[in-house]
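Q: My labmate handed me this sequence with no annotations at all. I'd like to see what the chain might look like in three dimensions before we decide whether it's worth expressing. Could you predict it?
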Amino acid sequence: MPVHSKIKNTDEISNDELTTYLKDKTHLTNRQMELISEEGKQKMKECLDNGLPAKFVADMFSEGINSALKDHSMVIKGKIEEEIAAGRFQELIRRTGRNEYAYQKVVSVDGRDYTFDQKDFKSDRQCRQWLKMKNINIKF
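A: Here is what I predict for the chain of 140 residues:
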């Protein structure tokens, strides 16, 4: 026997109302709800309205999200490794505290920067000495 929700026609409700309804019924986090498309949310509501347990529906969608994120991270990892192998990275000095600095090797992939090597220093002098010792010429 299907359970009918207070929301009757999903075409007439906003995405925010549907999100609120699904958050009330499931244990999904705000981050997970942001990752689900409006169509996915409609499907979740249909599953709940057709009598599937809320925990089952939430776990099913959660596993799908985790799988997609894992696949995406593997693609990004491959792109990062390609950029490193091709030598397309930047060497930067960043100030990380009052008198603390970090030497970083950074790769840009899909408009985002990823640090793949970092060395931290407690002072300006320590950083400059290490750069000189390693023959790295970076403007400070």
